[in-house]
Each structure stands twice: as C-alpha cells, then as structure tokens.
Write a structure and sequence with these properties.
The complex is a heterodimer of chains A (390) and B (381). Chain A is of the alpha/beta class. Helices cover 21% and strands 28% of the residues of chain A. In chain A, strands 1, 4, 5, 6, 8, 9, 10, 11 and 12 form a nine-stranded mixed β-sheet that branches. In chain A, strands 14-17-20-23-26-29-30 form a seven-stranded mixed β-sheet, with no helix packed on it. The longest helix of chain A has 14 residues. Chain A is globular, with a radius of gyration of 22 Å. Chain B has 381 residues and is of the alpha/beta class. Chain B has two domains: 255 residues, Spore Coat Polysaccharide Biosynthesis Protein SpsA, Chain A; 90 residues, Hexapeptide repeat proteins (UDP N-Acetylglucosamine Acyltransferase, domain 1, 3 Solenoid), CATH 2.160.10.10. In chain B, 20% of the residues lie in helices and 29% in strands. Chain B contains eight helices and 31 strands. In chain B, strand 6 and strand 7 form a beta hairpin. Chain B is globular. The chains are: A alpha/beta (390), B alpha/beta (381). Strand 16 of chain A pairs antiparallel with strand 16 of chain B, so a sheet runs across the interface. Chain A: One of its GO terms (molecular function) is glucose-1-phosphate adenylyltransferase activity.
Chain lengths: 390, 381
C-alpha cells in the first residue's frame, strides 16, 4: 500500500514517572526486550504496511532517538523517492511545560507541510508508550469498510491494568458491535474493577479531515493528539469508529509498568504474541559477535542479546548487548541494559541497570517486584551497596 | 581522490571438499562462528585496512553470497566514493566470460579495474579465517618497489607439502615457487594474497591473450611467468591466526577453536571488528530447562535443551531433552526434542526431528546438509 499513509508520531509522551530512565531520553527510545527500543514497535507497523516516510514530533534532546533511527533504513523509510524521517524537535506541548504559553506557530505549519507534501490519502497518528504491534493494513481496511472519517484503535482492558493516576483515556462506544464512538473519557475517575476500552492513541484519518482539524487547532491553540481529535470529530458530527486490537499491550507509564512489560517477555505466550507473528518487529541492526556462556554459567528462563560474556547465574532476567556477568554473580528478576559490567561475587535481584552501569565486586542490590531498584546510566555500584551517579 | 588500490576477493570457488555444505552455496558464503560467513573475514579486513574499492568476484552458486554482500553496507563499503561491487561472469561480443582460473577471473573483469585505474590491485581469496592489516603489506610492497608481493605464512615443516611454498633469499625476494612439493625447500606457504602493481600485471594478462599463452591461474601461470622474467617478487610474512576451512574437518575444528573466549582472533576487539550482515531477529531465549555451557549462542535462538561446547548460529531452535555437544549449528536449523547431536555440523535450515541421534567422531564429523531433514517418520519402521 505504498504512498497511502502519512504517519505522524507524537513522541511528546508522559515520562515523569519513568525517571531516571527518561532523564536523557524520551519514552520512545527506552530500551526494551534485550535489543529493541519502544519506537521500534510503531516503526515496525509502518514497515509492515510499506509506509514510505514518517514525521516525528519530540521535545528535548533527540540524541538517543536520532542515534537509533539514523536514516530510517532499518524500517524502509530511506527511499530516495518519497522516503524520509522528518524530525521536528523542541516542540512545546502543554502536557510537557509548566507555564502555558501559546504553541510555536511552526508546530501547526510543520504538520501541515508534512501532510500536504506527501501524496498520502490518509494520516496515521501513533505514539510509542502503549507497547503493542498494530497491523495498519487491517486498520485501514476496517476504516474503509466502515466508511469512517476517523478510526481509533482501542483495546478492552481492566482498569487495574493501568496505573492509578494514568494519563490515558477510554473510549465510550455506543455499541460494541458497530464500534461507533460516542465519547472519550478520562480513566483516572473510573472504579478499579471496571473494564474499559483503552484509547490506544493510534488512529487513521482522512487527509482532508486532518487538515480541517489543523485549522481549528491552530485557532484554539490545541495540542495535536488523538484525544483532542476525537473530541473535535464528535463536535463536528463526523462518523468515528473504534477498531479493536486484541494482541499484547502494555501501557508504559512508570518504572513498575516498564519493568513488568520486560518481564512479560519471559512468558512464551507474550513473547510470541509480540515477536512471532506474521509481521516481525524490526530494529536497527548492529554488528555483533555471538554471546559466550562460560563453563560456570547457570541460566534459567532468561533472554540475552548478542555480544555478552556470561560466567555467572542469570535467572528470570533480560540482558542487553555487550554485558558481562562475572563468576559467582547472581542476577535474578532484573533488566540489565547495554554495556553494563557485573563483576564477580555480586547479587542483583529486582534491579534495573540502565546503560553502562558498573557493579563492583561484592556489591548487593535487592529491590522488590513492586519497586525495583533503578541505577541510572553510567552509575557505579560499590560493595557497600552505595551507588554513585556517572 | 584517485583510486590507489582495488581489492578483488575471489569468491567463485565451489569448495567441493565441503561436500553437501556447498551444494547450494559457494564456499565463501558458508556460515562460520555463529554470526558470520567465511567471506566476512576478508571483507572486514578490507574495510579495516581502509580499502574502499572492493570487488567480490562470484561464479559458483552466487545467490546467497550476492544477497549477503549486497551493496557492502554491512562493512561500511557503501560510501559515495567506490564501495563494494559484485562481479559475475557475463557474455559479450567476445563470447561468454566464465572464469577458468583465478587470473582469468581478474582478466575477465579488466573493465572494472580499468574504470578505477588503480596503481595496485590486491587479490584475496574469500576462503580463509584471519585478521590481517593489508595496508601494512601494501606499504611493504611500495617500500620494496616490487611488481608483486605474495602474502606467506610459516607452517610446520611436516605440513608444508600441502601448500604452495615460496623459497626466498635473504632479502625476502622470492626465487622459487613449488606447488605442493614432496620435499619442500621452505615452510613459507602462500596465503593466496597477492599485491600486484597493476600496470605490470595488466601487460601480462593482455599479452597472454594476444600471444595465446595461458595466464589462467596466479599460482600456476602468472607467478612462474613473473619468476622467469625476473620481476621483483617479494614475500610478506604474516604472523597470526590463519586458517583454511576447506574441508569438513577443518571447518569443524576452526569453529571449535573459535568458542574459546581467549581465541587469538579476539572477535570482541572493538578496534578490529569482524563485520557481517546481521539479520533482524529476536533476543536469544533460554528457557527454564535450558543448560548452556562453554558455548556461543546468537540472537534468534530458542533453547530448551542442553548445549555444551558448541556454536549455535542465529534462529536455531533446540527442543527439550536434546543435547548438542561439540557441534556447529548453522542458521535457522531446527532441532527437535530428545535429539543427540555430537561432533557434528548441521547445515542452514536443516531439520532434525525428535528422538534422532547424530554422532560423529573427530575423524569423521557428522554432517547434515543445507536444508536437509533427518529422522522423523519413515516407511522403514
């Protein structure tokens, strides 16, 4: 389906509760499952529907994200005909600033220019913090079958699957079979036993409808996001449908949900649901050597990326690239990111080590599944258990 | 910038001694070490030596090899200036240009070299496992003002008769060449690496055509002709790990050596990396029942069985209660449950069904071919 969609990724996402992991990176470039970053999931959806280009809107330094995306070639976004990753940095959004100033005029202009310059018929909006693997072709087909102006992806979940003060919203459907959307509602106020249709902040829109909204949004100084869009569509009396997603989903909103999403991958059903489907998840490939497991290595239900050297015990954990685990080190129920070194005679349980953390001989760290200990990037953990910022 | 050097990697050989492992693919494309194919070593050496113009000359079963090399981007060889080029036989008004030998392969692609108009041409073979800085050899070639420099490696005297050996004088000038001699006069084996001053070689190759002399093979024809004409030929001695993996046994033993984390090649050295085309695949998943010891495992593997002193390439599956020992498993192979694999090479995409035993010995390594299926239901039962 070449040339049909203009994808816009809104990567200004709620990140406060993910600190320190989001100190130096947006949610979109959070490392996940040994060799991915969250952005790989929406990007793979784009790859699998043969999207040619994408526009990204981010705030703050995009270094870690741009370093990962580069030319976009890993997701087929680098064609010299119609291709490109159009990045728009330093976007000020209301959700991300304390003082409410007006939006930069370029904010609306950039959206307008991107959408009008592609030859697309539809605009697709996506984010990265709702981890999932969405098939855009099926969404488009549903959208056309329903003669819809706007179609929003949702998943039926329990209220308890989201954090207490979640920023996400739910769709109110007038009837589940037709999928027609009646309203959008904040989740925070809902009862903890409720089940709800989570707005997955992914939608497909007719190009003209999108441009009409842009006009309105600029006049009213509104954020361009799925929630506002639904409200606008309803106000205008346009046909808007919900499309049900039934695959793996996790809202990455705080350290615990990030930790749980990773741990979920150790369950084969979840792992297969996300990775072993017709549409593969793609990431930027890096040159690497195989991982070496020494004679003293003891591994039980764990995942690893290439380029590691493992001599200790690793249980129920996820280990990223270029990690070394020394003899008599015990790593359990933990996430160990790229370039970390765990020396011998150490003990880590319920721990998240960000990239390039050094755990010195004799160190012990033990968190809980509810509250894992996070060591920020470049940190050093000494034997007494004290950690130091890198 | 003018092109100083063109590297030609001769990758057209079948490698018939690898038996069913090279039935569908050329020897340089045979997987090695979990994450690599044999040609990656020569290609990475080129990239690390600063060579930008690298031609891969293919002929026998080139499909997998061509896809692997692609535009050379995996080795950083897709720059605007030069890059990797695949050269294959083609037909022209002079007839079909199939290659009769190493030198003939270069002659048939003389248009490519003329287009680059280099000062030196480096001839490499895509068959060996080694790390070598070709730039040092090129500096030596220039310093000696040689018309040909041959890369040589000292081998144990008792093995010298298996190689083409070079007899040198005190200044390292080559004075005699013996192909697989019964009584070798030297233990300096040719590595199949030649640096030619292009203007000179071009003359030899062109003359041979007009005078209908054969210049088909570098070892058999070109080198002897250079010697007869007293060209200045020097030997450049290489020291370090170098392995010809031309037989099943040598391929197996080179892989077994490769497992050692203290292996001389040091593949984790960030300053001289061995690059390859990395497939897009999942993390390696070792389940609760997995037991992995002294082994190398690659992304995309799923392991529920036991792996001991072995290399598993990407996307290999090992079922419960299966034991893989002293073996090299190539990419995408699927090994079922209750399978024993010992002293074996399992080919790409092979399937070994449940309850199968596959046990080789050091003298006779058990081999499962490319895409071959072993075990399972049969009518004989």
């Amino acid at each position: 389906m070449r040339n049909k969609i203009a994808p816009i990724l809104n990567l200004v996402e709620y990140e406060d509760k993910l600190k320190p992991l989001t100190d130096r990176r947006p949610v979109a470039s959070l490392p996940f499952a040994c060799r991915y970053r969250l952005i790989d999931f929406p990007f793979s959806s784009l790859y699998n529907c043969e999207a040619e280009s994408a526009a990204l809107f981010i705030s703050g330094s995009g270094h870690s994200l741009y370093d990962h995306i580069r030319s976009g070639s890993a997701w087929g976004l680098d064609s010299s005909v119609g291709g490109g990753v159009f990045t728009h940095s330093q976007v000020k959004l209301k959700s991300n600033r304390s003082a409410e100033t007006k939006h930069d005029p370029f904010y609306y202009e950039d959206h307008y220019n991107y959408v009008t310059k592609t030859k697309a018929d539809y605009v697709v909006m996506m984010g990265s913090s709702l981890l999932s693997n969405i098939q855009i072709q099926s969404l488009l087909q549903f959208h056309n079958d329903k003669n819809s102006e706007v179609t929003v992806v949702y998943k039926k979940v329990g209220r308890s699957e989201l954090i207490e003060d979640t920023v996400h919203s739910a769709l109110i459907l007038n009837n589940e079979n037709s999928g027609e959307i009646e309203a959008v509602k904040d989740i925070v106020s809902m009862d903890k036993d409720d089940s709800l249709y989570l707005n997955m902040e992914t939608m497909i829109i007719e190009k003209k409808t999108f441009l009409d909204y842009l006009h309105q949004a600029k006049a009213d100084d509104l954020d361009i996001n799925v929630g506002n869009f639904i409200q606008y569509t309803l106000d205008m009396g346009l046909l808007i449908f919900g499309y049900e997603y039934t695959g793996y989903l996790k809202a990455i909103e705080d350290i615990k949900s990030y930790y749980d999403a990773n741990m979920d991958m150790l369950d084969e059903d979840n792992f297969n649901a996300l990775f072993y489907r017709a549409d593969p998840v793609r990431t930027r490939s890096k040159n690497s050597a195989p991982t070496y497991y020494g004679e003293t290595a003891v591994i039980e239900n764990a995942q690893f990326a290439n380029d590691c050297e493992i001599f200790g015990t690793v249980k129920n954990s996820l280990v990223f690239r270029k990690v070394s685990v020394g003899e008599n080190a015990h790593v359990e129920s933990s996430i160990i990111m790229q370039d970390s070194v765990i020396e011998e005679d150490t003990y880590l349980k319920h721990v998240i080590l960000d990239k390039h953390v050094y755990v010195k001989k004799g160190a012990r760290l033990e968190g809980t599944a509810e509250k894992p200990i996070v060591i920020a990037k470049n940190g050093v953990v000494y034997a007494k258990g004290e950690s130091k910022e890198g | 910038m003018k092109t100083e050097t063109v590297a030609m990697i001769l990758a057209g050989g079948q490698g018939s001694r690898l038996g069913k492992l090279t039935k569908q693919i050329a020897k340089p494309a045979v997987p090695f070490g979990g994450n690599y194919r044999i040609i990656d070593f020569a290609l990475s050496n080129c990239a690390n030596s600063g060579f930008n113009d690298v031609a891969v000359v293919t002929q026998y079963q080139p499909l997998v090899l061509n896809r692997h090399v692609g535009n050379g981007s995996s080795w950083g060889l897709n720059r605007h200036n030069g890059g990797a080029t695949i050269l294959q036989p083609y037909s022209s008004v002079d007839g079909e240009k199939f290659f009769k030998g190493t030198a003939h392969a270069v002659y048939q692609n003389i248009d490519y070299i003329n287009q680059k108009d280099p000062e030196f041409v480096v001839i490499l073979s895509g068959d060996h496992i080694y790390k070598m800085d070709y730039e040092k050899m090129l500096d030596y070639h220039k310093k000696q003002g040689a018309s040909l420099t041959v890369g040589v490696i000292p081998v144990p005297w008792e093995e010298a008769s298996r190689f083409g050996v070079m007899n040198t004088d005190k200044t390292d000038r080559i004075i005699e060449f013996q192909e697989k001699p019964e009584n070798p006069k030297s233990n300096l084996a040719s590595m199949g690496i030649y640096i030619f001053t292009w203007a000179r070689l071009k003359q030899y190759l062109a003359d041979s055509q007009s005078k209908s002399r054969h210049m088909d093979d570098f070892g058999h024809d070109v080198l002897p002709a250079y010697l007869r004409n007293s060209e200045s030929i020097f030997a450049y001695s290489f020291e370090g790990y170098w392995k010809d993996v031309g037989t099943i046994e040598s391929l197996w033993s080179a892989n077994m050596e490769f497992i050692d984390p203290n292996h001389e090649l040091n593949i984790r050295d960030r300053d001289w990396r061995v690059y390859s085309k990395n497939p897009n695949t999942t993390p390696q998943f070792l389940t609760e029942t997995a037991k992995v010891e002294n082994s190398m495992i690659t992304d995309g593997c799923y392991i529920a069985g036991e792996v001991n002193h072995s290399i598993l390439s990407h996307n290999v599956k090992v079922g419960k209660n299966s034991v893989i020992k002293d073996s090299f498993i190539m990419p995408n192979a699927v090994i079922g449950e209750n399978v024993t694999v010992e002293k074996a090479i399992v080919g790409e995409g092979a399937r070994i069904y449940d309850d199968t035993e596959l046990i080789g010995t050091e003298k006779e390594i058990s081999v499962v071919g490319y895409g071959e299926e072993v075990g399972g239901y049969s009518d004989e039962k």
